[in-house]
Amino acid sequence: MTEYKFVDHLTEYMKAKVERLIEDHRDSLPKEIADLPDDRIIALVTDMATPILRKMEDDAITAAIERVAGLIRYSKRVNK
Fold it and tell me: Mean pLDDT over all residues of the chain?
């Protein structure tokens, strides 16, 4: 039997972005954060940022669905 491991690709994506940010901008991080070990900063920021991005994606999809439906209704009205 093949076992599958769940991978949250959005979390992995955000983790990589946070890692790059820390590498590139460590000197400009607030002192409270800069004093933490890198792996702790990455975990904390990723855990807080990922749900925000997930919500934005959901909102974008919902908005796009509403726009597509509106365009279809308009097209049907105009092309009778």
Answer: 94
Q: How far apart are CA 30 and CA 19, in angstroms?
A: 16
As given in the structure block, the two tokens for residue 43 are 């975990």
For 21-74, the pLDDT digits (tens) are: 999 998 999 999 989 999 999 999 999 999 999 999 999 999 999 999 999 999
User: What's the pLDDT score for residue 13?
Assistant: 96
Torsion, CA 29, CA 47, CA 41, CA 18, rounded to 10 = -60
Name the token pair of 24: 């590139």
The terminus-to-terminus CA distance of the chain in angstroms comes to: 56
> CB–CB of 46/11 below 8 Å?
yes
Domain residue ranges in the chain: 9-78
